[in-house]
């Protein structure tokens, strides 16, 4: 078996192999030659596995920016299109590709990698830790009264086909301050590469504007059989989110509103006069984070609390084990190797889980994944973020 990097000439076989691995057929481009989820892939960032002259496995990465705690924008490789033909599974193909890919990312200077997992049990063994979660909320319109009155700005309804520019503008401002958010490069919007609202699928767009007429939020939605489904709601603050939610809940011909991808800690349910009127469902993992260079990653993010902690980090997939002294002062961190006794002993995947502040170290201690040598209060205080991380971007 040979693992190699891809070139532009590999595009057709790459796409065909990946779709075959999923048991699917590639979609047809729209009238403008776009609208395909893979339109934005860059073939110089791909990996294929070959055996007997045939491509049997694929993987590739996107160059994203990931927003870290402290509103720090850091480069992150977004892994996608990972697949192995059904005839070649459980033969080490995926492991070989992952090892090659992580090595290539390191050599190119990357220190963070992220992905969305089709199956939650696959990528932990490669060092990826679950860092953000999402769920959906369904509200019956008949029981949708809010406890307090919503102060809304002006809301305008546009078609998705005429709203690309304002969608891109609002999302880009939002993702720069939201921990866990990923960039959506301009070419994604231009090509319609992804899921709605990036994709060109027909949608209505409710755009909220502030008192000065500046767009500061949107909700993209479709109405079908009395159910209004919102793909995503982007808002400058909770008041804008509430205004967009109220708009959807007051829509005529609607019996229920489904809010997809609501942050697990969002106050929307508490805004309702009847808490039970907004049940949640579909709790699921979303963004997985992999630290490729622990000191660089830890010193890149912002910190809210001063202090120091010793982390004993095991990386079994890459065969590495290091002990680090993390010292934080005035929101900045230094990270150096040390021989001091550890405060926490953990796998690199667990470090990925706590990195964005979405999971407290003490939670992983209670789950039996992390070993604490004393109290976890210091670790919990250090790793918390200004608000829970959340990722909406599909890739």
Automatic annotation (TrEMBL):
InterPro entries referenced in this protein's UniProt entry, alphabetically: Acetyltransf_17 (IPR041380), Acetyltransferase_Eis (IPR051554), Acyl_CoA_acyltransferase (IPR016181), Eis_dom (IPR025559), GNAT_dom (IPR000182), NAcTrfase_Eis (IPR022902), SCP2_sterol-bd_dom_sf (IPR036527)
Molecular functions per Gene Ontology: aminoglycoside N-acetyltransferase activity
Domain of life the protein comes from: Bacteria
Binding-site residues, acetyl-CoA: 82-84, 90-95, 118-119
Protein keywords: Acyltransferase, Transferase
Name recorded for this polypeptide: Predicted acetyltransferase
CDD domains in alphabetical order: NAT_SF
Keyword Secreted: no
Keyword Transferase: yes
Organism of this sequence: Lentzea albidocapillata
Any Pfam family the entry gives: Acetyltransf_9
One of the protein's GO biological processes: aminoglycoside antibiotic catabolic process
Family according to the record: Belongs to the acetyltransferase Eis family.
């Amino acid at each position: 078996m040979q693992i190699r990097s891809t070139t532009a000439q590999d595009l057709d076989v790459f796409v065909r192999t990946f779709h075959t691995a999923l048991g699917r057929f590639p979609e047809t481009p729209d009238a403008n030659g776009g609208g395909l989820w893979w339109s934005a892939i860059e073939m110089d960032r791909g990996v294929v596995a070959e055996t007997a002259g045939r491509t049997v496995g694929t993987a590739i990465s996107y160059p994203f920016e990931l927003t870290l705690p402290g509103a720090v924008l850091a480069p992150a490789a977004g892994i996608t299109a990972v697949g192995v033909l059904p005839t070649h599974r459980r033969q080490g193909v995926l492991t070989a590709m992952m090892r090659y890919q992580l090595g290539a990312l390191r050599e190119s200077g990357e220190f963070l990698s992220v992905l969305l997992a089709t199956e939650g049990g696959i990528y932990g063994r490669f060092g990826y830790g679950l860092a953000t979660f999402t769920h959906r909320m369904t509200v019956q319109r008949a029981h949708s009264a809010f406890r307090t009155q919503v102060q809304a700005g002006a809301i305008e309804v546009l078609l998705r086909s005429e709203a690309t520019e304002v969608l891109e503008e609002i999302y880009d401002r939002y993702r720069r301050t939201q921990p866990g958010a990923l960039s959506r490069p301009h070419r994604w919007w231009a090509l319609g590469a992804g899921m709605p609202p990036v994709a060109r699928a027909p949608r209505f767009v409710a755009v909220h504007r502030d008192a000065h007429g500046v767009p500061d939020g949107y909700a993209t939605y479709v109405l079908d059989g009395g159910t209004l489904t919102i793909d995503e709601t982007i808002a400058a603050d909770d008041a804008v989110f509430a205004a967009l939610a109220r708009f959807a809940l007051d829509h005529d011909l609607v019996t229920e509103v489904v809010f997809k991808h609501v942050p697990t800690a969002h106050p929307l349910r508490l805004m309702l006069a009847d808490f039970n009127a907004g049940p949640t469902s579909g709790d699921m993992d979303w963004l997985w984070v992999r630290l490729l260079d622990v000191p660089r990653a830890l010193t890149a993010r912002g910190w809210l609390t001063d202090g120091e902690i010793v982390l004993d980090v095991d990386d079994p997939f890459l065969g590495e084990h290091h002990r680090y002294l993390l010292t934080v002062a005035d929101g900045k961190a230094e990270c150096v190797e040390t021989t001091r006794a550890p405060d926490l002993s953990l796998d690199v995947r667990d470090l990925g889980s706590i990195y964005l502040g979405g999971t407290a170290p003490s939670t992983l201690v209670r789950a039996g994944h992390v070993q604490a040598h004393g109290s976890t209060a210091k670790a919990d205080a250090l790793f918390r973020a200004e608000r829970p991380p959340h990722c909406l971007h599909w890739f």
